[in-house]
C-alpha cells in the first residue's frame, strides 16, 4: 500500500503484467542509468553512451568472478520461495503490503490504473520496454504481454552456486528490485535461463547497461558468471 504509493512518487513510471502490444510510439530511451541506480529502486534501464560511463561499466564487469556452469539438477522455482512474495527480508520494498510484481510495475510503469478499491494491484499501464526499445500499452487481461524478468535467471543462479545458498538468500535474489525488470513478454520468453553469451536484449542501445545490471547482481550476491558470459558482457561496453 504505502510502499506502492511511495514507488509511484519516486519513480517516473509503473510496469504492468500484461500489454496490448507495442504502440505506435516506437523507440524510447526512458529509464535510469544502472550506474546511478545501484539498489535497483529507480525505473527502467537507460543506455550508457559516454566514454566515461562505459569505462566505469567495464571496470565493474571486471570485478565479477567466473567459473563453469554447474548442473541444473534439483532446480525448482519453489526453491526461491513462492513467486512475488512481500516477505523476502533484506531487499527494498519488502513488507510494504504490496507484492513484488506490483511493486515493480509501479516502479517502471506510467499512466497507472489500479483495481477498484486497491492502491496496489495494477490493471493497466504504459511501459517503456528497455529490451525492445518500444512503448507497450499493457492491460491485465493480457498478462503475458509484459513479464517480470530476473536479469540473472534463477536457474542460472542455481547452476552458478545458489543451490548451496540458504533459503533466505534465494528468496532475496528472487525478489530484489536490482534483479528485476518488467519487459516485453516474448523477449523475456526467448531469453529463458540464458546468460549474455547466448542471449542479449534486441535493443542494442541498452546492452552495456544490461551487462552492468548483471554485474551489480553478481557482485551483490557473490555470484560468478561463466567466462564466456563475462567476455560477452565486456564486449557490450567497448
Automatic annotation (TrEMBL):
Keywords carried by this UniProt record: Endonuclease, Hydrolase, Nuclease
Region named Disordered: 21-52, 177-198
Single GO term (MF): endonuclease activity
Top-level division of the source organism's lineage: Bacteria
Pfam families: GmrSD_C (PF07510)
The GmrSD restriction endonucleases C-terminal domain, residue ranges: 100-235
Keyword match Heme: no
Compositionally biased tracts (Low complexity): 21-34
Protein name as it appears in the record: HNH endonuclease family protein
Organism of this sequence: Streptomyces amakusaensis
Amino acid at each position: 500500500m504505502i510502499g506502492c504509493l511511495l514507488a509511484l512518487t519516486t519513480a517516473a513510471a509503473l510496469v504492468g503484467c500484461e500489454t496490448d502490444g507495442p504502440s505506435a510510439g516506437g523507440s524510447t530511451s526512458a529509464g535510469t542509468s544502472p550506474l546511478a541506480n545501484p539498489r535497483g529502486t529507480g525505473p527502467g534501464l537507460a543506455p550508457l553512451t559516454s566514454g566515461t560511463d562505459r569505462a566505469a561499466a567495464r571496470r565493474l564487469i571486471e570485478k565479477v568472478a567466473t567459473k563453469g556452469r554447474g548442473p541444473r539438477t534439483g532446480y525448482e522455482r519453489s526453491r526461491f520461495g513462492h513467486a512475488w512474495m512481500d516477505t523476502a527480508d533484506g531487499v527494498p520494498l519488502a513488507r510494504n503490503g504490496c507484492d513484488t510484481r506490483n511493486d515493480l510495475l509501479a516502479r517502471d510503469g506510467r499512466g497507472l490504473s489500479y483495481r477498484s478499491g486497491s492502491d496496489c494491484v495494477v490493471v493497466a499501464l504504459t511501459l517503456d520496454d528497455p529490451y525492445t526499445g518500444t512503448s507497450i500499452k499493457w492491460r491485465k487481461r493480457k498478462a503475458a504481454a509484459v513479464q517480470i524478468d530476473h536479469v540473472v535467471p534463477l536457474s542460472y543462479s542455481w547452476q552458478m552456486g545458489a543451490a548451496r545458498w540458504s533459503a533466505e538468500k534465494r528468496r532475496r535474489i528472487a525478489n530484489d528490485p536490482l534483479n528485476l525488470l518488467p519487459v516485453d513478454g516474448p523477449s523475456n520468453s526467448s531469453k529463458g535461463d540464458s546468460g549474455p553469451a547466448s542471449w542479449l536484449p534486441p535493443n542494442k542501445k541498452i546492452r552495456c547497461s544490461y551487462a552492468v545490471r548483471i554485474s551489480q547482481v553478481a557482485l551483490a550476491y557473490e555470484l560468478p558468471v561463466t567466462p564466456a558470459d563475462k567476455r560477452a558482457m565486456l564486449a557490450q561496453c567497448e
